[in-house]
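Recall the central idea of this unit: under ordinary conditions, the amino acid sequence of a chain determines the structure it adopts. In this exercise we apply that idea directly, starting from the sequence alone.
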Amino acid sequence: MFNNLFYPERYHGHGRKPPFFEGWYFKLVDREENHRLAVIPAIFKHRDPAEHHAFIQILNGLDGTATYHRYPAEEFYAARDDFAVAIDQNQFSVREISLDIQDKQRTVKGKIALKNTQPWPVTWRSLGIMGPYGWIPFMECNHGVVSLDHTLDGELEVDGERIDFSGGRGYLEKDWGAAFPAGYVWMQTNHFDTPGTSFVGSIAIIPWIMSSFPGFIIGLWHQQTLYRFATYTNAKTVHLELKDNQIHWVVQDDQYRLEITSHRARGGLLYGPSRESMTERIGETMLATVDLQLSKRNSAGQILFRETGRCAGLEVHGDIERLLALQR
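Accordingly, the structure predicted from this sequence is:
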């Protein structure tokens, strides 16, 4: 629906033909940072209707265990004029998530309220984090940041253990389209010494007509200002290096320079969408850290922000060699 272009958080799959997927990523970290969960409700539409299904993935960010809870597609509901999604007895919105998962893999029950959410701004010129690319109907994968940072209130019972998330912090984003990129790097953290600061960044192989290019999008929300670096803002990647233990990424535009060093850590395996199935295995950690330095590109090189983000999500997946080759 045309109107939903201005609401990235809403479900975009009404009337969409397969292959198609759409999923939301709820990151939950308690106040003491002793518990970290990713909750991912989604729908997958296959060319074979028998393979249509909804699912909820749960990732324990501390021990890396991940579970995939599959439901018939008929158990998936999404409103047309609001972000309101339900899968069986589980409900999701920008205000609250309510979970009631009970199967052989895992039991997760409870409610978490999302308070003081901070959405990525949406305008006619820039449809959220996708910018002007949000207007292009043939993008392989679309991305939306529903809330850069918010507080949590409530508790979950996970396999018999009660976890109080009250006073913790959360983050909420989503993806939809035909498939994940063939190769990409994604990182996110909103746990800095300066409260309310949030960072998300991704660089990926973007199919484009008969070719492809390395597109990137970065947002740093700090002191009520959103610093954006993206392909569509004419920012440039000055340096990108991936090692076994860290990622070093430097971007800049006419005004600012952002230096990023992400320290990799062990994680778990999630299922990701291709055009044919939901069997692609994607490694994700919630134990990474991200060192950031934002400075002005003037003669003084004034440093505006320099801190380390904790509880960071990090994914490095797919054809990274090709991604790096395109970047060169």
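Residues 2-327 form one domain.
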